[in-house]
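Wed. Picked up where I left off yesterday with Bulb-type lectin domain-containing protein. The coffee machine is broken again, so keeping this brief.
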Amino acid sequence: MKLQLEILLATALAIATVSVVIAQVPPEKQFRVLNEPSYAPYITEYDAGYRFLSSENQSFFTLPFQLMFYNTTPSAYVLALRVGSRRDLDYTRWIWDANRNNPVGDNSTLSLGRDGNLVLAELDGQIKWQTNTANKGVTGFKILPNGNMVLHDKNDKFIWQSFDYPTDTLLVGQSLKLNGVNKLVSRTSDVDGSDGPYSMVLGNKGLTMYVNKTGQPLAYGGWPSEDYRGTVTFTVRREFDNLTEPSAYELLLEPAPQQTTTNPGNNRRLLQSRPLGILSKVNYNCTISYLRLGSDGSLKAFSYFPAATYLEWEETFAFFSRNFVRPCGLPSFCGEFGYCSRGMCVGCPTPKGLFAWSEKCSAPKTTEFCGGKNKGKTVKYYKIVGVEHFNGPYVNDGQGPVSVNECKAKCDRDCKCLGYFYKEKDKKCLVAPLLGTLIKDANTSSIGYIKY
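Structure written out below (C-alpha cells, as returned):
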C-alpha cells in the first residue's frame, strides 16, 4: 500500500513538472522591447506621435493592425493598437489602449517572459499594466487579422485577448458583456486619452449612453430592451442579391444568439435606423470597421476601404444624425450651453433674451448660492419657452404630476441644479444638474427655467 502511494505521488509530481515545462513560453517566442525614439513619418489620429515596436522574436504587425506606443503629450506614452496601412493618405486610427489611464515614459519596456505574463513597465521596473497571465499556460503572442491581440496556449486556445477589454471602441466581432466588460468609456479629449465623461453601458434594461460631469449619470441615447441575453456584438453581415455575390454589407449590433429549437436563427438587429430597418449598408467589403464612442459623446462607425486611392476611411454610421436620432440630442452639439434647432446652433439663452450662439456661450454659474457670502440669497430664473432638455426623452420627461412651484422648489433646494424643465400639459418636472445643448421644441408648453 505504501509503495503504491509513493508511486502515485511520484507520477503526480512528474505530470505536474511536465505541465509546468509545457506551459512556459519557449525562448524563441519571448521578447523585451524598449520604448525609445524612432522615425515615424505618417499621420495618425489625434496628431499623436508614435513609436514602432521591434523584436527579432516577434512581429507586432498583422495587416492592417499594428501594436505601437503613442503619445499626445510629451513623455506620456500609451501602448495601443492602430488600424490602417503605414502609408495611408487618410489617418490611421487608434482602436485599443492598454494603459490609457496610466501612461509610461521614455525607455519603458514591453516584455513577454517565460511565465507568459505580458508586462508594461517603467525603466525602474514599476509595472504600469499587465495581463496577469503568469503560469496560466501561455506559449505565444499574436495579433489576429480581425485586430484581436491574444496570448494563447500550445493548442492555440486564448488565455487572454484584447477583445475582452474594450476601451472606447468595438471592432467587428467584439462584444460588451454583462458578465465581463459591459461598457465603452470615451476619451477625455483628443489630447487626453484618459477616461472621459461619456459611457455606453450594457445593463439589464438595455444599452444606454450616459454623460457624467456632475457625479450623476444622465442618459442621452441608446436602445432600451431587456432581450439582450447578456451580450451585444458589433458585427458585419453580407447581404446577397443572389447566391454567389454580395450586393452590400450591413453594420449591426446583435445580442447573443437566441437559444431556441423552434427558431435558432432569430437574432434581432439592434442598430436600426428609421425607417430603413438596418444600421447602414456599405457597397464594399467593410469587415474592417469599428464603432466608437467619441470624446464629444457621439457614437459613430467607420469603415476601411484600402483599395481607395484617397480617404480610405468612411463614416458609415452616426447615432446623432438626420437619419437616426436628431443631432440636437447630442449634449455637446452646441457646446457647454446652446439652443439647437434642426441640427443647427441658433442661439445662446441669456436673462436678456436669445443672443447669437458662439463657442463662448455658457450657462450662468450658480455655485455662489451653495454657501459663502451669498448663502441664502434668493435664487432667480429666466424662462425659455419651447425647449427640451437632452435627458428628457430617456426619463419620460421627469417626475410628476407636480406643480410648477413644486418643481421650482426642488431646484431651489439643490445647489447642483442649474435649471428645471417643466411640461405644462403633463405636469412633468425635470431637474437638470447639467444643461449642455437645449433642444427647440415646437410644443410651447415645454418650458425651461435657467437659474442665474
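Quick read: The first strand starts at residue 31 and ends at 34.
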